[in-house]
Amino acid sequence: MPTETILLDHRTSRSEKHAKNKDASLIKIADHCVACGLCLPHCPTYRKTQSEADSPRGRIALMRGVLEERLPFSERFIEHIDLCLTCHACERACPNNVAYGELVDGMRVKIETKRNSGFLHKLALRHMMTRPRLLQAIAASLRIYVKSGAQSVVRKSGLLKLLGLDKLERNLPPLETPVRWKSIYPVLGNARAEVGLFLGCIARTIDTTTLRATTFVLNRLGYTVIVPPEQNCCGALHSHSGERETAINLAQQNMRAFDHVDTIISTASGCGAQLGEYDQLLKNEFPTFSRKVVDIATFLNQADGWDDVAITPLNAKIVVHDPCTLRNVMRQEKSPYELLKRIPGVDIKALPGNDQCCGGAGNYFLHFPEMADSLVNDKINALKQSGADYLVSANIGCALFMRLRNTTTIEILHPVVLLARQMGFIC
Ligand code: SF4
Ligand code: SF4
To answer: Is the per-residue pLDDT at 1 higher than 60?
Structure first.
């Protein structure tokens, strides 16, 4: 046998062995499920379809069957897994601590190796979201596209449908003025401490207001803000879409970028949850990183310097949306409520139905618009009945999706922006 063939066989058998080991570890997770069904009422897709195959228990049974090769790796199986929002509500409800998120993410890596995801999907995940400068350039072009009036001409031409971009274009969010980030935002005089700010790929492009408001509040309280220029996308979308290798590369880049800071502040809970899972993703090679990550509201609740700042009262009713990542993964959902109490005069309530995902779920709303719209309609209906002046959400993805579908005049914003405004921040 030629040497080349022997080497190839050797490599194949090693990769097969690795895949078998991976399958065995996923089966082990699935084996923890005792099929009690206590997670079912917490699962948004099960609530909507009432189908066992769209419930956590059903999905776990299907995944175990496929991993053990008792069930076929069929299109129908993939559809049931794809329809999962990765909201982790089942994980939070499970009395047996089944690591559902790890199981479904592992399964999605297998699914990606079997199916050939579209060219545009791969291009976006591997080559656009991993290049913040390119993303900003695209955002700048889109701003021209919207402002010049070209948008309505292109929409009428039918070109978008032809290119398969119509869904994406319809969901184009309002694009904020770009910011040229400095690497440091110092305070005048002695700083209390230095903190790192995670920008995120989408947030730095379309939610610059929240990032600027965060820097403003931190500086006011006496914290110097470090913005490492080498930071990149958190990799959440990659992790939940089976693009694990890219997610690992991004994790390594961000760990290097924030190596010199002890606290990393995240303003989007979707990013914060992913940053907090880096140690697990990298098999605890750097076990200290995740402990440095904190949501902005949690950080500000423990911060010093509040006695030195003035906060203007606000006579308003605020309803708070709990993003799944803040609630079910970071478990810091109380923080925004605590933070908003610093504004005198506000009436703070939870948005009814907060235990259910809004349907945004990263790019889920683009792939499953029917399920996503049904879920977001529940939020908008609850908002309509709330009589609120503001809806606050600590995750940019949720806030954007709810803004896109918001049929009320109620403003949807990040809690830090509302607080910063009362401290003199000008949007
Ligand atoms: S995932 Fe947990 S809660 Fe759901 S059926 Fe299995 S053991 Fe019960
Ligand atoms: S992650 Fe969410 S959508 Fe998926 S099975 Fe669990 S509860 Fe259901």
So the answer is: no
